[in-house]
Design brief:
Helices cover 43% and strands 21% of the residues. It has 16 helices and 17 strands. The radius of gyration is 21 Å and the shape is globular. The chain has a nine-stranded mixed beta sheet with strand order 9-10-8-7-6-5-4-1-11, with helices on both faces. The chain has a three-stranded antiparallel beta sheet with strand order 12-13-14, with no helix packed on it.
Length: 373
Amino acid sequence: MLGIYVHLPFCPYICPYCDFAKWPHRRSAAQRYLTALDAEIARAPSEPAGTIFYGGGTPNSYDAQTIAALTHRLRERFPSPAQEISIEINPDLVQPGDFEVYREAGINRVSIGVQSFDASEIVTLGRKHTPEQVTSVVHAARVAGIPSISLDLIFAVPGQTLETWRASLEKAIALGVDHISTYGLTVEENTPYADWQAREPQAFFDDTHEAEYYRTAIETLETAGYQQYEISNFARGDHFCKHNLNYWDNGEYNGFGVGAASYRDGVRFTHSRSLDAYVLAAVAGDAIPGESERLEGNKRIGEATMLALRTAQGVCIEAFKQRYGINFMQHYASVVEHLTRAGLVESDATFVRLTQRGRFVANDVCAGFLSLE
């Protein structure tokens, strides 16, 4: 399955923890960017794609009709009879009728950037919505017939307590959404949060406390009937995000827009994060500046292992052999043995997967597979 990712980088305000390729929304810049995006998409070979995903930035800083028109062009270029089409949205930007326009355009999944239902934490995170707006937006999406609704939440926020974190989880559950993503706050370089942490490190969580909040998320959501199908993602029924599943299956994808990444035929290409460089090249019909890397040998299979281990299923040993020509248990025998003794992975004749303990230190576990020469 081919995935299509479209980066819409403009935001009405910039969150202090975010290091994505993003810029304050300006009408002229946003229109010029759309022209460049159309030019890049028009040059791409037409082929079937199973998913389309609008990420950002804040995709719904563009009005719904603009998104609908772009979706129509993408569906013509990358046709498929049963596409999952997702859009990330900020709840405070939703206008009456937006979801009806999305649904008619074929968008069938919305991911709402909530992050917290606690008013104080919302301010700390630099967000502008209110908890009441989130409730209204979820209701409006349901009434409009959007089939799949997801919420994003962040834990380990400075000033957050277990009680406020549990309350946010319970409010998300009470809204009856189909999917919930929970992310531990990551302090990225060159962000206002990095400056804050440098001034006041005690305001931020250590690994032990962050793990406690993650454990609370797992227990609360699984008790409510959500299946943890990936380290950060929980779903009811079959509402898994197919676009992200393709990433974790090391599938192929085309990325359009500034800073977007593509992976085709074993080569990963990432566009420049310079907005001007991207727009100038795309409009002129030139190659988009960026960096490319061919993944080969242990690097390729190590990355495939890392991605698969993020999922609850883990690495399918037989599928891995068919796809990469590698006997996984022989190739990684010493790594698997070490991690099994440490209680971080478990295996049987079919799969190798993280234990619950392993999920808490997934990056360290995956490093063992990536470091094999």
